[in-house]
Amino acid sequence: xxxxxxxxxxxxxxxxxxxxxxxxxxxxxxxxxxxxxxxxxxxxxxxxxxxxxxxxxxxxxxxxxxxxxxxxxxxxxxxxxxxxxxxxxxxxxxxxxxxxxxxxxxxxxxxxxxxxxxxxxxxxxxxxxxxxxxxxxxxxxxxxxxxxxxxxxxxxxxxxxxxxxxxxxxxxxxxxxxxxxxxxxxxxxxxxxxxxxxxxxxxxxxxxxxxxxxxxxxxxxxxxxxxxxxxxxxxxxxxxxxxxxxxxxxxxxxxxxxxxxxxxxxxxxxxxxxxxxxxxxxxxxxxxxxxxxxxxxxxxxxxxxxxxxxxxxxxxxxxxxxxxxxxxxxxxxxxxxxxxxxxxxxxxxxxxxxxxxxxxxxxxxxxxxxxxxxxxxxxxxxxxxxxxxxxxxxxxxxxxxxxxxxxxxxxxxxxxxxxxxxxxxxxxxxxxxxxxxxxxxxxxxxxxxxxxxxxxxxxxxxxxxxxxxxxxxxxxxxxxxx
Length: 482
Known about the structure:
single chain; mainly alpha; Growth Hormone, Chain: A; globular
């Protein structure tokens, strides 16, 4: 069986030419249509994580501890089912493809769970909310995990995969932007009407879902299924497979560190702006400013990735964020211009690591398929999603208790020394996470050259089995000509 060494950057006596992918890039319109499914998924995350819990406390009298337990269990369920859905999606065979059936059915399940969450009846209680959230997150994972795998299958080209991730990141940022703008407007217009606020947020999610699902399902074809029998895996086999794949573990660890860093910043952002800077009404606007510039930054990081390669671009982005976070230490309550500048800089840098690391997952799956003759792209993207969720959970579990240990009390007047401690936590915590991410991905073994060699060997093996990458590329060319 063909393999390729991935120990470290090879020292070659003669340069090996990089395999150039000569297939045309995917059309912009089709990529935008394909990526729209990221908008409802992003738009539901912000309300569920930020606005829905307090609204349920005011509308139904749920205690904060009850709401906290409900949402914690729902997110644990969400994380638990991701690998199972990834494996099942990899093994699915149907006339509609491997990924489409999961996304279509998942959208229905997602809507069934979301309706009672955003339009709760008067009798709604903790058990009903828990059941609805479990259904919602089941549908969410049935959409997100197969879609992530499908996006990794659209092209075998090293840089084209980054381009696909860039379009998805841009549409996700638009969804996040909408999810941040709407609550800001509702707070003033629907003050004291928690049910109407829930319904308006739900309406936005449902509209985006109804528009995006048909667009995504029809935009691009699924590629041909790789040759080789797909072996079923039990839980212990899945764990052994993941932990045996060194490059995958490095990507997961690097992404986990990114998410911890971003999660600490998000968890403390409102507290820092409201209490240290003394600008409580500024927090929503600064969030919006950050995400607006995050949308503009997506093409920038695509260009940087093409120029430097994915690994170096990810490292450059993470070290940029280390610098931005350390500069926060220079802030004083009166240095508003510096706060605005650093918020914009954070927006321009925030997508760098996530975008590159997500693109690298598909390259690692190619390496795994060459070694084992097994296509595990859905599984790999599912554990990547798991690292996302674990990083956010750990960040909240670390940042808020640390702030409390430092003496910070949101419901009391905090002395200047305590607020200084919060500033240091807000600045240094994310800086450490981003620095760890850069260190973990440093000298990553799959670069453009080694990936080109992997693709050459896969193409040769597939051609021997009468299925080639050229066949998939012809589908895409035919689509762009229609």
